[in-house]
Amino acid sequence: MFTISVETRFRASHQLALPDGSKEPIHHHDWLVTADLSSDRLDNMGVVMSFQKLRALMDSVVGDFDNAAIETVGYFQQNNPSAENVAKYIYDKLRMRLPDGVKLQNVRVVEEPGCSAKFGQ
Question: How far is the CA of 1 from the CAs of 18, 45, 104, in angstroms?
């Protein structure tokens, strides 16, 4: 099994809804997103997938978040904009755009150093 990883970044704010119905103060993060992909075989270039193509796909998925409030993206109007839900959202969107034979293992998002969430198989 071959595995590759690509990172991208975006800056966005979020405001979590707390269990008592109140909201935490809105705050910004410089988010780091890492996607790990794998394949049993390499393509005709000898790679799982082009790093440039993967980064472009990732950037298109996270583009709606950049310099925005995460909760303004449709999915987050019904789901708390937690790091866990951001990881799941990116995973679901990215997985649908991959070539045949390439499997998305997981997506990890880092809100700030030492604070991350991962979603995947």
Answer: 41, 16, 13
